[in-house]
Predict the 3D structure of the following.
Amino acid sequence: MKVSFLILNAYGMGGTIRATFDLATELSARHDVEVISVFRHADEPFLPLGPKVRLRALVDLREGARVRWPYTRKAERLSGEPSALVHPEERAYASFNAWSDEVLRRELRRLRTDVLVTTRAGLNIMAARFARRRVVTIAQEHLHFEAHKPGLFEEIRRWYPELDAVVTLTEADERDYRAMLGGSRTGVFTIGNGLAGGPRPRSRQENRIVLAAGRLVPVKGYDRLLKAFARVVEVRPDWRLRIYGEGRVSDKLVRLAVKLRLHNNVTFMGPTGDIEGELAKASIHAVSSRFEGFGMTIIEAFACGVPVVSFDCPRGPREIITPGRDGLLVPPDDVDALAEGLLTMIEDEEGRHRMAANAVETARGYDIARIADRWEKTFATLAG
Amino acid sequence: MGTRREVGPPGVGRAVTSRVDDDDTLRIEWWEPGDGEILLRHAETGQERSGTDLTGLAAGTWTVARNGMPVATDDPGFSLDGMVAYAARPRDREIRAFRTPVGTLALMVREVRPYVEVTRVDPEDGTIVVEGVLAYGEPPAGPARLVAVARKGPEADGGAALSGRRFTGALRIGPMAAGQARRRVFWDLFAQVGEVRLPLAARLDDIPGKKEKVRFPAQRVDRVRVRPYFTDTDALAVACTVEEGEDA
């Protein structure tokens, strides 16, 4: 079976790229797999991709890149014009232009593949509109249902019924998409992101470290995590918080940490290329997000033997964490509850060790091999 | 966040535990028993050495192999408490095990001299209070002071105590900021015990480059902002900066 993944930019770093690469790599053991990147800005992808997966790009943004004759002039002209096919409310709208419209439409109209998996709303709509009839089209939604703005949502409602399937990360999203798609033929399936195979470092639960990781942006709720941690250190000044990542609110967070007098307890670690290595040095993973579309770092933490204390925010955490077994869920937006949850996990050393062991078990359910099996079953259902 | 691919299959040649013990021996526990001697190789010079006795190992990074294969490990290689305990002995070199981002075991050897490992810094009420613990040396005899030395400038000091290996000291910032003429003056901090002047630094962890990662609160003396910080080598210093006011 030939499987094609269509992704905005395979050369950057981020959750969607990683999840797509890991899945493509796993499927490439049994299928002919390619990743088509709409844009390319670097010579090599940042994240690892299996050697059997073919990677190609449609629009080359690298310096000195030229579009071949006879499209050279057309490309120059259209690159300066806004996209007419991508809705302005699609979050990546600014990346697209009239030239990428042209190239994408041409690609989809001629693409001969058995299964096309598209990975974001703008590309899902394109596949629904332009993919060949015999291609099984599967739209993957890495964002949650309510994350789409009204205008884009109308386009989703208009075009998704033309797709063969929508694959969501959470069951909550599956329910929402089912309700929206009503009587259409489009199938809806939940398949979470998988964890790449191979051994992992393991936390010994010996360092008094709470770890948080992700872009330093408001949705991650690090302001609330800092406030909660200020209460934690009143009781347990020997515990430290390490925040990994970078982003636009980084200065604001550093100032807040200073204001909360957390200078002896909080370290802004910057980005890391080895989050699992860092998790293995920690004992607790904190998730303070206002929203988590899935929560891949929760599964990574589990795999490294690190239990999680998380806000019970929509949507991923509550579907991954079993409270008391491999982590704790606390009421969303409640700083006191987060502090309480962290302290409970800190003080109950025996319980924490037990949850750490259970967490490793939970993570096995997200092994990429199992996730790939579910994708294959979905392919078979749709192709049959 | 990034990702990585590990080397080697689980099982053979894979360590559950890989640590440097207090007596500088490399302790490796394996998922599955196996034979073969440990071979260490200096990453820069290529120098080789076999066995798990690490005494006198040259400074630098060493890779660890067995039967010609790099040793993969599931162990981060250290605990923070373990590092503090290791530093409680007088030593002239520090050997740490660590797990590389690709999952292999390596050793980092550094030459060390006695210093005070900073555990807390509290800038408050016109003082800077520093707590720490003596690392890699015997406690010197004599009265203790917390000393600040301005680069190309004077010294200031404040009361301190060394109790066992625990150091506590406090500096008043008023005298440091008084009469500052230059826009910025940097003060390096030391623990003075008797005749011995020990640097203050935070190195018993896995976080180099604290300058960018730790921010201390500032205090003000008139128009001088006084803020402790970690230098490029993770030593503790204080920056006194004349703030550009509206009438400046």
In short: Chain A touches chain B through 43 residues (CB under 8 Å). Chain A has a mean pLDDT of 95. DSSP finds 14 helices and 13 strands in chain A.
